[in-house]
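Revision sheet: structure tokens.
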Amino acid sequence: MQPTNNHTVPNGLTQHRREVMTPLVYFRTFWMDYLAMAVLGALGLGIYFLRPAPNRVFPVYFRDGEVVNPEFTYPYQKDIIPIWLAALLAFIIPFIFIMLMQIRTRSFNDVNTGTMGLLFSLITAAVFQVFIKWLIGGLRPHFFSVCKPNINASFVGTGQGFDGLLFDRSICTGDEKQINDALESMPSGHSTAAFAGLVYCSLYLNGKLKIFANYRPQYWKFVLFYAPLLGAVLIAASLTIDHYHHWYDILAGAVIGTIHAFGSYRFQYASVWDYRFNHIPLPRVDAEHGFDYHLDHLEESLSGSRKGGWRNGQIHGAPFDATATLSMVEMDRQLRV
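Predicted:
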């Protein structure tokens, strides 16, 4: 883990003594994070079971008896991938890669950082989307099959709005829980979970394997980077086959999951795309000192790659800042002489 005490050495540079990560130190450092996750998880679960907040109105028939919105008339059937399975896959696949990466990195700090970042992404994105489901929602493609409206074309004109064409859930005769769920289509929880976990997985793989870095890696690494994204798309797209979501529900969930994955990764690691630092966990124990983005960190924080200079200390900058970085390295070398 990161250091907590410091002392000054003769050349004017500040060094820090490293505190041993005992269970007590771990609890003292991270208890509030775990408490926040538990509170958010309980909040999200509680909201998930609430009755939808808005009283949505919808047309059923035109005056000639034609169904107004056939996109809400699809048959109700079991989802191909249940939400619990989507959430499990979104966690377990990245976690497996985090653990496999320890074959080379062998760092408890990285396991803890990577896993907590994954949990941050999944939990925060889930709470984000359930709030939108509860307060905004929308009609699922199988809404009328679940609603089972007690109305026919002769009732047109007795509802609300212009020409009395609109009705609310009071005309439904189906199961109340299914109706509640059918009124919460936007955004897709499956898509949110899949993209929150699997986009995070791709970012983690890029940081550790240096897929987009200062050298051209093997092609299988390029494929591996996109494999979790394919999994996220397949999980999300399956919802159009089982008629649980519209395309725009899926897109909204994918956007929510993706922005939380990027935010959570940057929250935990020194960079998202800068290949010199995007594998290094940010300090938590000694946070008041921060991370100084110095290339000396590369000597202590190994990535999963053996190429590109990570194992021989030859990393000298990145696009757009290579000159400045080289100047700082040279200045530091002069100070050390």
